[in-house]
Description:
Blueprint: E1 2-8, E2 11-16, E3 26-35, H1 38-44, E4 55-56, E5 62-68, E6 80-83, H2 93-96, E7 121-125, E8 129-131, H3 138-141, H4 144-157, E9 164-168, H5 172-183, E10 188-193, H6 196-205, E11 209-212, H7 219-227, E12 231-236, H8 243-250, E13 251-259, H9 271-276, E14 280-283, H10 289-300, E15 310-315, H11 319-328, E16 335-339
Parallel strand pairs: 9-10, 9-12, 10-11, 12-13, 13-14, 15-16
Antiparallel strand pairs: 1-2, 1-4, 3-5, 3-7, 3-16, 5-6, 6-8
Amino acid sequence: xxxxxxxxxxxxxxxxxxxxxxxxxxxxxxxxxxxxxxxxxxxxxxxxxxxxxxxxxxxxxxxxxxxxxxxxxxxxxxxxxxxxxxxxxxxxxxxxxxxxxxxxxxxxxxxxxxxxxxxxxxxxxxxxxxxxxxxxxxxxxxxxxxxxxxxxxxxxxxxxxxxxxxxxxxxxxxxxxxxxxxxxxxxxxxxxxxxxxxxxxxxxxxxxxxxxxxxxxxxxxxxxxxxxxxxxxxxxxxxxxxxxxxxxxxxxxxxxxxxxxxxxxxxxxxxxxxxxxxxxxxxxxxxxxxxxxxxxxxxxxxxxxxxxxxxxxxxxxxxxxxxxxxxxxxxxxxxxxxxxx
Length: 341
């Protein structure tokens, strides 16, 4: 089958690979759409901690069930599906609490021998496959995984009705976290970025305020002035230097900051502010099974304006172009989907 591979840093190819074998509890999915994630760009640059070239890339997916193993009962051939792209050991304390994202033996696509999702078909255990409505758009369904990241971030932030929330960074993850925050009841949502086109999409997703912080050294005070107070919660979706302390300065006493972005370098921490004002800094990694289920339900119910996030759809033969667009910010990209038809 055809597959998209990062064969070495900064180089994407389409190659032929063997179909993965199908176990009795597994489902073979004919891939329809697979999204390019920011973490895939880290892999492209050779910076990802475990997706190391050469690797068949991708973990966001929607598709059609093409084949099922002998013991599969929950889905059938012809069903539209999305996937929670992670598997835990099923035995550790984290897995038993439903925290598969914290399993020390966690497996994910792109970790040998599990192929990534950017291939003509993808194999996954039945228990991480989610059936979709028969009429659900494949492109929209491919947002289930990144939306689950946003849902998990909102859970980590404990956002409640009436909260004032700041979303720092409005790439696809920031935008979907914004949508999840709105669904949780946040009534004041400020989005920041350095690109106006991202902020325009943030408004479409439900932001009540936006702020382009490029060349604005005092943007933290400007943000608080815009809403007339400090924020209850801050979600960090961009890992730039100084963003942790900026976030702590945005929130009220007893407020909470949640980190979603991938950080490549250490961040300084204003421990006096964190401790003296009893502010909270909380980590956020991937999602749980329940988060993916919630994301699928939100998309199926039409609660998320996902089409505002999707800017480009390219056939797999143009995957290298898609990766270049995302990495270089060519043609104002947000979510770029790679399709297999």
